[in-house]
Amino acid sequence: MRCLRDKLAQANLKLGRNYPEPKLVYHQRGTSAGTAWLETYEIRLNPVLLMENEQEFIDEVVPHELAHLLVWKTFGRVSPHGKEWKWMMESVLGVPARRTHRFELGSVRTNTFPYRCKCQQHQLTVRRHNRVVRGEAVYRCRQCGEPLMSE
Question: How far is 17 from 35, CA to CA, in rounded Å?
Answer without folding.
Answer: 23
